[in-house]
From TrEMBL:
Gene3D superfamilies: Vaccinia Virus protein VP39. InterPro entries: 23S_rRNA_MeTrnsfrase_RlmA (IPR052939), Methyltransf_11 (IPR013216), SAM-dependent_MTases_sf (IPR029063). This is Class I SAM-dependent methyltransferase. It comes from the Bacteria. The keyword Signal does not apply. One of its GO terms (biological process) is methylation. Pfam families: Methyltransf_11.
Length: 254
């Protein structure tokens, strides 16, 4: 039996969005994955590292899925529900989970880590990353690219004419912080939302897509989108992903 708009929206508005696990969307939304295989790359580098830091770890999902962690592994997170999830996943693996706020400075001494990673950071603190890396250490990150899921954002908030996105400057910002860019790639990836509940869940979880989103605020637009999906099929958008790997030059003093 087909579920109503109200049923779909209420369910998606009440379910927990803690952590960075999107399995609730299985069978309801899809997103093509980047070709570079971030988790595999990160696993390879973690296996060679002695001391590693994962910034904005979310619920620790990525680190917990890796086969090997360095002897010293630290993860930071600022959102309390995510902190509890990350601690439950990572402490049994011998990793430390540190509560941190959303602004620099990173609470670590200079030149401590030979690997720093971050998957989908809200903002990358390039100078701080360069500071905590050892000479020769590397930063590996998969980031949100410019105009990611713009179709969904524009549906609710209207198109942004000439809007710039600072994340497109990742390579320049890394170099400005004194890092050497080893790899920089961009991809746009097809997404499909199969019902309005998937849209609500995504917007509650990925809060920067439509800032200030709530069901009550956008109920009319949600209902219109529900009817559009029912009549024409999944809503299609495109995510933007950036892979960057950068190194602190060996000649820099720790």
């Amino acid at each position: 039996m087909r579920r109503t708009f109200e049923e779909l929206v209420q369910e998606a508005d009440e379910v927990s969005v803690a952590g960075w696990d999107f399995s609730w969307l299985d069978g309801r939304a899809t997103e093509r994955r980047p070709s570079w295989g971030y988790a595999r790359r990160l696993g390879e580098r973690m296996a060679r590292a002695r001391a590693a830091l994962d910034v904005e770890t979310g619920g620790g999902e990525v680190l917990a899925g890796l086969p090997t962690l360095p002897p010293m592994t630290v993860a930071t997170e600022s959102w309390p529900p995510n902190l509890a999830l990350a601690a439950a996943r990572l402490r049994p693996r011998g990793a430390w989970v540190v509560a941190d706020d959303d602004e620099p400075r990173l609470p670590f001494a200079d030149g401590v880590f030979d690997l720093v990673s971050s998957r989908h950071p809200v903002r990358t603190w390039w100078a701080e990353i360069a500071r905590v890396l050892r000479p020769g250490g590397t930063f590996l990150s998969q980031q949100i690219g410019p105009r990611s899921v713009a179709e969904l954002r524009d549906y609710f908030m209207g198109p942004r004419e000439g809007a710039a996105d600072e994340r497109v400057l990742a390579g320049e910002e890394a170099e400005s912080a004194g890092l050497e860019v080893l790899d920089l790639r961009h991809e746009r990836l097809r997404m499909e939302f199969g019902d309005i509940g998937a849209v609500v869940y995504f917007l509650r979880k990925v809060i920067w897509t439509v800032p200030g989103f709530s069901v009550e605020r956008y109920r009319d637009r949600l209902r219109e989108l529900h009817e559009l999906i029912e009549s024409e099929g999944p809503f299609v958008a495109h995510s933007a992903r950036v892979l960057i790997e950068a190194r602190r030059p060996t000649g820099q003093a720790a």
